[in-house]
Amino acid sequence: MMKRFYYIVSLIVVTGWLLVAQSASAQQLFRLTQYFQNPIVINPATTGIEGFMDVKIGYRQQWSGLDGAPETYYISAHAPLRTNSSSTGLRHNALRISDPSLYDQFDGNTRYGASNVKHGLGGYITSDNQGIFAQTSGFMSYASHLPLGNQLRLAIGVSAGVTNQQIDISRVTVIEPNDPTYLAYRNQQGQSTNFDLNAGMFLYSDRFYVGYSAARIFQNNLYNDSEIAAQQQLTHFGMLGLRLNLSTALMLYPGVYIGYDGANPVTYDVGARVKLKDIVWAGLSYRNTSTIAGMAGIQINNTFNVSYSYDYGFSGINNLQSGIHEITLGLVLFNSRQVAPYLW
Questions:
Q1: Which of 15, 107, 109, 320 is the least crowded, having the fewest Cβ atoms under 10 Å away?
Q2: What residues does 305 pair with on adjacent strands?
Q3: What confidence category does residue 90 fall into, taking pLDDT thresholds of 50, 70 and 90?
């Protein structure tokens, strides 16, 4: 009982700190190459999908050869709220067997019991800086994971929080000082703060996952001036992936990640990752912006893991920059059952 109390208190403290600590950017949502490392930012329905508290700290640097190049920082934490289920979740234990269906002979469930509804709680902060633009968001997220069968669950989630966008007016030079857009930004001291909502669904089993989410549901106005029509864009995300056991030690994860905000062309990532004994992994992906990415990661011990990715584009701007670097540090907490990650 006392252990469960400490678990819940830790989860509330971490997620509460994440929301309170938020403070200040650009008008487009940032994009991560290692989206699977920080899924609750994309789809709140993934909150609590892991069998432990999953904490991620990440940094992404784009176009490192250019002045004012984009930089992104994030920290997230989420975990399932404990249930009274006595299920052992053998299928997701770190020890794997050649035929996963044999697990069903021992327990007819997946991830804490198929007969139980699982709840997840989490939160995140993101800070995105692009030249004179800056955007910081702080959100709390919740998801309910509903059993649809022995090996299938549907998660429905929502996240709510605040986004602050800033423009450094002191670095802006305009030809026409009476330009309405410039005056609107100056009157707001170059910033706007809005409350917003994201929502998503995530269908998953031991073999696959597919998810849809929508961000910026409120489509807030960017200016207080009602004569200027400028709104945040409702953004749609989709994720699809397979989990294939190639052997007792090797797993393959092919997947697709899609994003569309209504103002720009659809973007998508197609790739695959292989993981050896839940310890090391490596992968490749292609983005339809003429970009390829290589990535790799390692589970250092039962608590710490780290991963790195490098994007290289084939567009003309690559003559001026050296690519995109992204590094993620992960912490696995309260994993007493040694459950293997689902999305890692």
A1: 320
A2: 299, 330
A3: very low
Rounded to whole angstroms, the Cα distance separating 306 from 304 reads 7
Residue 182 parent element (H or E)? helix 180-187
Whether the CB-CB separation of 55 and 333 falls below 8 Å is answered with: yes
CA 105 to chain centroid, in Å, comes to 34
Neighbours of 168 (CB within 10 A): 12
State the average pLDDT over residues 183-191: 69
Minimum mean pLDDT range among 10-14, 31-35, 184-188, 263-267? 10-14
Q: Which superfamily is assigned to 2-333 in CATH?
A: monomeric porin ompg (2.40.160.40)
The answer to whether residues 44 and 200 touch, using CB atoms and an 8 Å cutoff, is yes
Contact residues for 243 (Cβ-Cβ < 8 A; gap 6+) = 206, 207, 208, 209, 251, 253
Higher pLDDT: 35 or 9? It is: 35
Supply the DSSP symbol for 339. B
Q: How far apart are CA 236 and CA 311, in angstroms?
A: 23
* Joined tokens for residue 131: 């030249």
Tokens of 223: 């200016």
- Locate tokens 């749609």: which residue? 236
**Cβ neighbours for 316, distance < 8 A, ≥ 6 positions apart:** none
Mean pLDDT of 285-297: 94
Other beta carbons less than 10 A from residue 274's beta carbon: 16
Task: Spell out the domain ranges in the chain.
Answer: 2-333
